[in-house]
C-alpha cells in the first residue's frame, strides 16, 4: 500500500468539526457508531459532552489517523 492509499483513509479535523457543528455526527465520521448512538441518545450529554468534544476533536482525529497508519504498516509488514 502506498502513501496515496493512506491519505485517502485519513480523516480531517476540519470535516470532523463540520460534522460536529451541523449534524452532530463526528463520531460516525470516525467510525465509532456505538459512541455516536450514545451521543444522540443523551443529546450530546445534554450539551456538556458536545462542549467537551469541541476541544477533543483534534486528538480524536489524530488517534484515528494513527490507528489507520499502524494498520496499513502492519499489513505491509505481513506481505
Automatic annotation (TrEMBL):
It is a multi-pass membrane protein. It comes from Bergeyella zoohelcum ATCC 43767. Signal peptide: none annotated. The chain crosses the membrane at residues 12-31, 37-57. GO terms for cellular component: membrane. This is TM2 domain-containing protein. Keywords: Membrane, Transmembrane, Transmembrane helix. Residues 10-55 form the TM2 domain. It is found in: Membrane. Pfam families: TM2 (PF05154). InterPro entries: TM2, TM2D1-3-like. It comes from the Bacteria. The keyword Chloroplast does not apply.
